[in-house]
Amino acid sequence: MKRGATPGPMAAPEVPADVYDQDYYLHCCAGHEEWEVSGGTRFAGLYAGALERAALRPGEVVLDLGTGRGELLAVALSKGASMAIGVEYSHCALGLARRTLQTAGTGPEAMLLASDARELPVPDRTAHLVTMLDIVEHLTPEELDLALKEALRVLRPGGRLLAHTMPTKTIYEVTYRLQRLAIPGRRRRWPANPRIAEEKAMHVNEQTRRNLRRSLRRAGFSEVKVVRGKWVHPAWVPDERAERLYHRLAAHRPTAWLGVADLWAQAVRAPR
Fold first, then answer.
1. pLDDT at 9
2. For residues 156 and 271, what is the distance between their CA atoms, to the nearest angstrom?
3. Among 10, 63, 98, 201, which is most buried by a count of CB atoms within 10 Å?
4. 167 cis-preceded (ω within 30 degrees of 0)
5. Helix%, strand%, coil% for the chain, nearest 5
6. Distance between CA atoms of residues 186 and 177, nearest Å
7. Which CATH number fits domain 17-268: 3.40.50.150, 3.40.50.11720, 2.40.50.140, 3.30.70.3550?
8. CA-CA distance, 158 to 151, in Å (whole number)?
């Protein structure tokens, strides 16, 4: 089976790997609280929930792009996956992932690959399931297109992709912007860009439902479905009363797109 190849030298990623240091994985990256407090033995519910959403079946091969600390690999094997492969380009993350897998006692069924998601050292039609948890927003549109094409390539016919991304572009570019402009004085007191430092450095492609759906279809996926999650993320808003608006918006279907901060995407490689 052949491995994917891109003509000519691959340009360096927009966000260098060394930006993702140990401090990021221990204090910012989703799930860090459970992992750090337990010494890498307890994992956030995000991972089991994602595999349940993806309908993981016993005996399947899972490939996790941007595996970070590696929790999803350990959880997938505990739920019956025959093999779990994690792809990561941050050396700090790989070190933490090795610790996770060693602590979990996963054995040879877990594999870590130091690689860029745009060009995977994985044979065609390897995986039944590819997961991308909170890496979409870290890839430029061009990088995301390449990563999704690679995900499609390494999936078996009928294989599934599951992606999660947060926060959405909408809560910053629409909801926050309207709040800032609506009340006199806020324009002076509230920053034009409220994102935290890590988001400013790392988030190069925050998503909307429409944009993520288009990217998946452009890569060749079928049965594409993108839905809002349930996460509300208002802590960065400068005013406590304004913070509460996000919860009110998220609670009602017509306005949920303005308040909910995360998206789930599912898609399939068409059987051939």
1. 74
2. 8
3. 63
4. yes
5. 45, 20, 35
6. 10
7. 3.40.50.150
8. 13
Specify burial of residue 221 (Cβ count, 10 A radius: 0-12, 13-18, 19+).
buried
Decide: residue 63, CB within 10 A, 0-12 exposed, 13-18 middle, 19+ buried. Answer: buried
What is the domain partition of the chain in residue ranges?
A: 17-268
- CA atoms within 13 Å, Cβ hemisphere of 138: 24
- The low-confidence residues of the chain, meaning pLDDT below 50, are 1-2, 4-6
Q: Tell me the Cα Rg of the chain.
A: 19
Sequence-distant (6+) residues with CB within 8 A of 164 are: 46, 50, 132, 133, 134, 136, 229, 262, 263, 264, 265
Q: Within 10 A of 257 (CB to CB), how many other CB atoms are there?
A: 18
pLDDT of residue 8: 61
Q: For position 5, what pLDDT does the model report?
A: 46
Distances from the Cα of 132 to the Cαs of 70, 144, 185, 232, in angstroms? 12, 11, 40, 20
Structure tokens at 176: 């926050």
pLDDT at 272: 74
Distances (CA, A) of 66 to 74, 89, 252: 14, 7, 33
Going by C-alpha positions, the residue among 194, 204, 54, 71 that lies closest to residue 129 is: 54
Q: Given this model, what pLDDT does residue 2 score? A: 45
CA distance 238 to 186: 9
